[in-house]
Amino acid sequence: MHVDLTGRTALVTGSSQGIGAAIAAGLARAGARVAVNGRDADGLAKSVEALRDEVPDGEFVAVAADLGTEEGAAGALATLPDVDVLVNNLGIFGARPALEISDDEWRRYFEINVLAAVRLTRAHLPRMRERGWGRVLYIASDSAVVVPAEMIHYGMTKTALLAVGRGFAKEAAGSGVTVNSVIAGPTRTGGVEDFVRELVDRDLPWDEAQRVFMREHRPQSLLQRLIEPEEIANLVVYLSSEQASATTGGAVRVDGGYIDSILP
Fold first, then answer.
1. Is 263 contained in some domain?
2. Are 166 and 56 in the same domain?
3. Which of 114, 158, 163, 237 places its Cα 20 to 30 Å from the Cα of 145?
């Protein structure tokens, strides 16, 4: 299958590193002009340069903005007012005992992980409908379905994204625009490596620490290893393509078999 996104512009939020950067690279390889987003302008510039080294033929645009705020979203829209593909990847996570999560923390997680995606969808979906083509994606998580006891505030936001994605898919019905959520499983990123180190012996070599983490904290995984960011990106690129034109309103899994059910 050859995915060709030539002539399309994509915005990947929270894409200066990790899964977002892998998605940006994958979309660029498919021919899209890709807007890379991060809060820190200097750090973002370095990330864009790294992506250009990785995909020499790719076209990248830096969008420095804190999308977890209304002001940041407005600034991003001023820089990039129109996109064909919107990948809502921005998200934060962290372990916290359930009874110690404050009101402010609950609000912060919802603002960044959910409302940022809602704002951008509200801004871009009307123009996509007018054109009769567009792709909106939400990067959710296995935690949306199997809520981890150590971070229920994060799980809550990912569950909310599934509802948001299904709802906006109905808003886009019959327009040629598809809206989907991607349920990503435990994935190897810098943040996840730090998270693994919080939960297992910090002195263990990484390969052993990863195995202990999967065995003790994610035993449902059929893959029995952390997923690589590029494996998430592969599904996102497909869902952004013309070939995925009949897939909408879905919660599509790339979770390594982590969720023990036939349907999410």
1. no
2. yes
3. 237
Tens-place pLDDT, residues 106-157? 999 999 999 999 999 999 999 999 999 999 999 999 999 999 999 999 999 9
In this structure, the answer to whether residues 16 and 75 fall within a common structural domain is: yes
Same domain, yes or no, for 181 and 192? no
Same domain (yes/no): 86, 204: no
Residues 91, 197 share a domain: no
Lowest mean pLDDT among 48-62, 64-78, 121-135, 207-221: 207-221
Kindly list the catalytic residues.
154
- Residue 18's CB is within 10 A of a number of other CB atoms, namely 19
> Which residues, in sequence order, are CB contacts of 39 under 8 Å at separation 6+?
64, 65, 66, 72
**pLDDT of amino acid 203:** 87
Name residue, tokens 């349920």: 183
Q: Is the domain of 205 the same as that of 153? A: no
pLDDT in tens, 223-264: 988 999 999 999 999 999 999 999 999 999 999 999 998 876
Structure tokens at 90: 């921005």
